[in-house]
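Input record, target 12 of the design panel.
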């Protein structure tokens, strides 16, 4: 069971994550979008969207630092374990609460605004469930171990296991003694990565770089009368 959960499942999720994005880009390039619903409702979106996106950005940065940067590197940089722990717990809790709050507003908007709800697909619903589950379990693990409990150093177990998977030298034994909430959070994250390529979350891996090099769009009027003011040089009417 340990090998299945902490060796097989991570690589299955990784293969589906990479292969799914390649397939999606190859066969559903026009569907690679956020499916924006701003035209249907804007008031709740202005509240929920910034709160969620800024919160999830801090969550991602925190996970990158906590999982990918070894314990010795932060100590070499002059950051003590106590300082790192206090900062990580404080920022992680704030980021988690903001992300969940913004997500709650977005889900409420999607459920109560008729046109937005009508435009919601099954993949959207699955994405919201998986995303909420991962966020709730992550925040619960942080609060239970570090605020309600005596604290837990995940950088000595979860982080080395994660890096061992990425280096293709998995060490499942590192996860055997990890608290249950941390294990459930890791499994929910693997499930989220597996469904990621088939949802609107694909837009997080793209950037509008084409806008930097695309040519200008020229607009020309069909009206015979263009106004009383003479056109500027270079903007004369094309006949």
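The sequence produced for target 12 reads:
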């Amino acid at each position: 069971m340990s090998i299945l959960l902490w060796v097989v499942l991570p690589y299955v999720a990784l293969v589906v994550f990479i292969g799914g994005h390649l397939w999606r880009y190859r066969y559903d390039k026009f569907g690679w979008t956020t499916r924006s619903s701003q035209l249907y409702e804007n008031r709740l979106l202005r509240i929920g969207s910034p709160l969620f996106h800024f919160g999830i950005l801090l969550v991602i940065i925190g996970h990158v630092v906590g999982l990918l940067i070894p314990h010795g590197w932060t100590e070499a940089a002059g950051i003590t374990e106590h300082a790192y722990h206090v900062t990580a717990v404080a920022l992680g809790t704030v980021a988690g609460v903001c992300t969940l709050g913004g997500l709650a507003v977005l889900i409420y908007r999607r459920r109560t605004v008729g046109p937005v709800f009508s435009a919601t697909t099954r993949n959207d619903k699955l994405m919201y469930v998986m995303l909420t589950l991962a966020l709730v379990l992550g925040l619960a693990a942080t609060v239970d171990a570090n605020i309600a409990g005596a604290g837990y150093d995940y950088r000595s177990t979860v982080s080395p296991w994660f890096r061992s998977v990425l280096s293709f030298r998995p060490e499942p034994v590192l996860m055997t003694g990890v608290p249950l909430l941390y294990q459930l959070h890791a499994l929910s994250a693997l499930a989220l990565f597996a469904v990621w390529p088939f949802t609107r979350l694909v837009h997080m891996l793209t950037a509008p770089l084409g806008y930097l090099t695309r040519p200008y769009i020229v607009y020309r009027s069909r009206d015979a009368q263009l106004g009383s003011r003479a056109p500027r040089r270079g903007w004369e009417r094309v006949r």
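The chain is about 60% helix and 0% strand.
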